[in-house]
Design goal:
With 238 residues, the chain is α/β, with parallel strands linked by helices. It is built from eight helices and seven strands; from the N terminus they run βαβαβαβαβαβααβα. The longest helix has 21 residues. The protein is globular, with a radius of gyration of 17 Å.
Length: 238
């Protein structure tokens, strides 16, 4: 099958969510407007996640997986997924199902005229502490990056592979995907999407690593922005 979109799903200890995730993905694949391949990236899970995604991939031809030898973090998992994707479009969503794969259909109509389309979660179904810390982190990143994004870390995105594969690897990458596309001269757009409560498993981020790490990563981004090399070739010999 000729796939147009690879959906990367990084996961770390999400075995309680995976069978329900499989059901929702299969349902979406049946109605998706493009041919979709699902790529799980196991970030060194210590529960039975690896065993479950192996079984899912064996019984579904549109599913595959890669697995790290240890826990490297969300940014590394996303980058590994991007490196292994072979489709012109690359999507990303979390395994916790607080966003739905069906909502990729809300983003796809805009990807033709943009290089990254990201969701913007409305009516957040999170704890008060998580909402406050996310709001502060988003305001901080927007101040540093000037990317205009209201919800930079929304875990539902589509990006053109030509742009995704040029993004350099660094810790905190997942917080700066729109800004990194802008550095390449690309166009970005945000689209409102629903948000759902976590039904199983535990969140992997807390108050401190939602605020301290993103703040420090902003300085790394500023250094990269100052030193980023971007060029376009308009002529070459035949």
């Amino acid at each position: 099958m000729d796939f147009q979109l690879t959906i990367i799903i990084p996961l770390y200890n999400e075995d309680e969510n995976l069978l329900r995730l499989e059901e929702e993905l299969i349902s979406y694949l049946k109605e998706a407007s493009v041919n979709v391949f699902v790529l799980f990236v196991n970030d060194g899970s210590t529960d039975s996640s690896l065993s479950v995604i192996k079984q899912i991939s064996q019984r579904n031809k549109n599913f595959g997986f890669i697995s790290f030898d240890q826990n490297y973090g969300l940014s590394a998992a996303i980058k590994a997924g991007i490196d292994h994707a072979t489709t012109p479009l690359i999507g990303y969503m979390d395994a916790d199902l607080q966003t739905s794969p069906e909502d990729f259909e809300l983003l796809l109509p805009f990807i033709k005229d943009n290089d990254l389309v990201t969701g913007m979660r409305v009516d957040r179904q999170d704890s008060k502490v998580k909402k406050i810390s996310s709001r502060i982190a988003n305001h901080t990143r927007r101040f540093f990056t000037d990317d205009g994004m209201e919800d930079t870390c929304c875990p539902l995105k589509i990006i053109k592979a030509d742009y995704a594969k040029k993004i350099p690897m660094f810790r905190g990458l997942h917080r700066f995907l729109p800004a990194m596309v802008l550095l390449q001269g690309g166009k970005i757009k945000q689209v409102s999407i629903p948000h759902y409560p976590r039904m199983a498993g535990k969140a992997k981020f807390n108050f401190l690593n939602r605020l301290v790490d993103p703040f420090l990563d902003c300085f790394a981004y500023l250094w990269m922005k100052k030193n980023y090399i971007n060029y376009k070739i308009n002529q070459q010999n035949e």
